[in-house]
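We modelled each protein-ligand pair independently. The example shown here corresponds to the zinc ion entry; the chain sequence is given first, followed by the ligand as SMILES.
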Amino acid sequence: MSAVRRIALVGLPGSGKSTVAPLVAERLGWEAVDLDSEIAVTSGRSPATVIATEGEAFFRDLELTALEGALRRPGPQVIACGGGLITQAAARRLLTELCTVVWLDAPDEVLIERLGAGAGRPLLGGSAAAGIPRLRGSRARAHQVSHVRISAEDSPDTVASRVIAALDGTVRVNLAERSYHVEVRAGALEDVALHIPGSATRVALLADRAVRPVSDRLVASLRSAGIAMTVLQVSGGEALKTWEEAGRLLDCLGTAGLQRNDCVVALGGGTVGDLAGFVAATYLRGIAWVNVPTTLLAMVDSAIGGKTGVNLARGKNLAGAIWQPRAVICDPDVLASQDDRSFRSAFAEIVKYSMIVEMPQPAALDGQLGRLLNKDLEALTEVIRACCAAKSGFVARDEREGAARAVLNYGHTVGHALEAASGLGGGLLHGEAVAVGMRAAGVLSIRTLGCPAAEIGWQDEMIERCGLATTSVFDPERVLGYMGADKKHVGDRLGWVLLEARGRPQIGQHVAEAEVRAALDAVLAR
Ligand SMILES: NC(=O)c1ccc[n+]([C@@H]2O[C@H](COP(=O)([O-])OP(=O)(O)OC[C@H]3O[C@@H](n4cnc5c(N)ncnc54)[C@H](O)[C@@H]3O)[C@@H](O)[C@H]2O)c1
Ligand SMILES: [Zn+2]
């Protein structure tokens, strides 16, 4: 759980926050923090006494100070929050920005039974039976900021195990109050319901027909969690990412009666995710969405970062929005049915990460390649986590691609042009085009930035070993024409992403046209 460093447990009175927090902390070897106990120590009185004598507002100030104090301490923590803490905007901001917020939830009857008469809890107004439903209503919106919702109906030990399991192998995308988590785990599909906002009364599932059995399972699991579903089947592939299809789906959401508080779930490859995210971004000016990628390329790359959109006649992804999902759920089990060609295309992005960042995985990639190509679950889980961690780092630093995030476009200037030139949806797959694009960028990196040829040699060898072509048959003039339409190239604002060395990318590189032609000559067979 390396990427999650602080867990904050929130929930109504009786949900077990104070009991579960130390159990989770002990198992993880982290610090357990109980804000109510800290207040009792610093103020010398119990929270109930403080509220009864000084009023709730005074207590909320103490609570916020206690939270700030705890968050200043280094090291990983599991924090049991007072039930009302999350109602304060300032506390909510701190919690969502700095913690993984886990909402422990159980039905009213369970909470009421646990609390007995509710004695000693002034905010329940003396009666748990009347107080719990009232608090649930008034705190409903505040609880929506939670990153994960866990059922707190069972024993504290079971609930603690559930919290740990839900966050195991999770990568956190740090984007202030829009932070979210990427779950990467075989079997994670079962957890999608945990990430649907509690406010949603209906979920529209946009599912790729190619994963029908997976989508049936997902629908059954969401329905059994009491969620009303509208299922919209689409055919994944580049040809799906059109303005017309986006419009058709938007109308379907309207017909199904989706409201602002409802949610879209995308189930499919990168094309379904890009389109569904765009539909979620524009419907009613933006509703929540959860991305459940089903291809390796979508898991290692496209599902994270919130870039959504459709293609235009002039080229790839030319209309879209940045709209972050609430969560991304990667279950490598679903890759079993992916066909070899599109599965292999993802390795272009995996090799890309190995070239642009220093992560533990590049060195291992040579050794792991056989296992990865054989869809070994453990190897896949590891590589997906490593790529997600790398990508989320860039996205967190630069959500709207001012600079840092642009390094992810290594190989994409030529890649996108090839994809467009090959006819979107009919020719090269995204990864196949990027593989050739990286070759071209490699040639330019050696010639213009003095990147060691052996490092580019490693890149080219990996691409070949993944079964991806390093050359493509195209007329360079056509490719150059499409490069003019690439957003990254227009006006030379960002220029090229090239490598000084492996792990040392440089953005905004301006390259003379003659050099570009020479690089294309090296990678385009005629
Ligand atoms: N948003 C981003 O940041 C970002 C980043 C990289 C790529 N992308 C986009 O991602 C798209 C490519 O994604 P992709 O490679 O996943 O393509 P894709 O969505 O077209 O999926 C490839 C094929 O596999 C099928 N499929 C999907 N999951 C399957 C499964 N589990 N079993 C069997 N078949 C399955 C699909 O129906 C499709 O035919 C491109 O449009 C690219 O522009 C976006
Ligand atoms: Zn890409």
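Residues 6-168 form a domain with the Rossmann fold fold (CATH 3.40.50.300).
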